[in-house]
Design goal:
The chain is of the alpha/beta class. The protein contains 9 helices and 15 strands. The strands form 4 sheets. A 5-stranded mixed β-sheet has the order 10-9-11-8-12, with helices on both faces.
Length: 276
């Protein structure tokens, strides 16, 4: 049996043009979906500093999906490390907050993937000449938000590309978030940072002529909306709605608005598996 066949529910669901109406009864009755989000990951989700309005690609995409399903969105804000615990304890119906679809997270959740991203090395403009190749980071102190998948990504990359080649490994420095990583890099407490390729250009634009990307992203991962495993009806309804947005062009337009054209997916993926 192929991997694709293991997601039988989605395969059946997407074959039915009426499936998007088959929402869980509790959500149908309320007409509302509660979505967990951490609005500190521009341009995916953030609060406009002038108006306080919640903005970003994830916000626009979630609103479009909910509209397709005839639902209103109620946002539930949380710290990133509390997103999964909050969903598991019933505070919300799903997570939509720049979360990578990883094998470990799939132990508790199912993911409907909606974009791709990668872990990207960067350093200060003043030091960019020191790092002509990614292996120049071997033996260096590299910072990244500790609640993300980046620490494990960097440790794995270091093992394969530094230590296996007889070079000193990267010292992984967990930070309190992107802003903390930027500050430590400016202060010289770390040599480089790692950030998602989808957010780094935006963050760099807020502090121009300060930071430089080094090389291409060294990982490629999908980001997904997280659902409880028991909520396959809701997951599949969202999958149908996402496919409709892709067909109509609205999905493409949202990604173009936020300059994320290179991070679009070519179809529907659940738990990193393509669904035909």
């Amino acid at each position: 049996m192929s991997k694709k066949a293991t997601i039988a529910g989605v395969l059946i669901a997407l074959a039915s043009p009426l499936f998007a109406q088959d929402l869980p009864e509790s959500i149908k009755a309320s007409g509302e979906v509660v979505v967990l989000n951490q609005p500190e990951y521009a341009p995916m989700e953030y609060r406009d500093p002038a108006t306080g309005e919640l903005r970003g690609l994830d916000v626009d995409l979630q609103l479009a999906l909910a509209k397709e399903l005839g639902l209103k969105v109620k946002w539930s804000e949380s710290t990133f490390e509390q997103l999964i615990p909050s969903l598991l304890t019933g505070r919300a119906n799903l997570i939509h907050s720049g979360m990578s679809d990883t094998e470990k997270r799939r132990e508790n959740l199912d993911f409907l993937d909606y974009m791709k991203s990668g872990a990207q090395f960067y350093t200060t403009d003043a030091r960019k000449g020191e790092f002509q190749a990614l292996t120049d980071f071997c033996g260096k102190r590299v910072g990244m938000p500790k609640t993300t998948s980046f620490p494990a990504d960097v440790a794995s990359w270091s093992e394969q590309n530094c230590i296996a080649a007889g070079k000193p490994g990267i010292t992984v420095m967990g930070t309190e978030g992107s802003a903390d990583t930027f500050m430590q890099l400016k202060q010289g407490r770390i040599d480089a940072g790692v950030q998602g390729s989808e957010t780094l250009p935006y963050l760099m634009s807020q502090d121009p002529k300060t930071f430089s990307k080094v090389g291409p992203p060294f990982t490629v991962k999908k980001q997904g909306m997280g659902f409880l495993k028991k909520d396959n009806d809701l997951r599949d309804a969202y999958a149908t709605a996402l496919r409709k947005l892709m067909i109509s062009g609205e999905y493409k337009a949202i990604f173009a608005k936020w300059k994320q054209e290179d991070n679009q997916l070519d179809g529907i993926y659940v738990n990193d598996i393509a669904v035909e």
